[in-house]
Specification:
single chain; 116 residues; mainly beta; six-stranded mixed beta sheet; four-stranded antiparallel beta sheet; globular
């Protein structure tokens, strides 16, 4: 059974940083594509970033490029999202997804709130 458990969310001021983690189990993490998506209040699901765990190929949405970094630790079966220079518009529930893009099994999400 695929399980994805996100953590690391919280409240931060604009310009701050957070690192999200997603502990994965129930599938071969090192041969999988993984993604981060987010959903802001009252909005639809937005793709943030994806990575191929076996090649470290990455891709980012324009809205986060240069500020966010996705990475995967295959030894720990864990996906990360390092977020820097956070803006109020980054406020959302962040989910990790098994797969490339928004389609795929998601975890329960972790809330990120950026506010002064």
């Amino acid at each position: 059974e695929v399980q994805l458990v996100e953590s690391g969310g919280g409240s931060v001021q604009p310009g701050g940083s957070l690192r999200l983690s997603c502990a994965a189990s129930g599938f071969t993490f090192r041969s999988s594509a993984m993604s981060w998506v987010r959903q802001a209040p009252g909005k639809g699901l937005e793709w943030v970033s994806s990575i191929l765990s076996y090649s470290s190929r990455t891709s980012y949405a324009d809205s986060v490029k240069g500020r966010f970094t996705i990475s995967a630790d295959n030894a720990k079966n864990t996906l990360y999202l390092q977020m820097s220079s956070l803006k109020s518009e980054d406020t959302a529930v962040y989910y990790c997804v098994k797969g490339w893009g928004t389609i795929g099994q998601r975890g329960q999400g972790t809330q990120v709130t950026v506010s002064s």
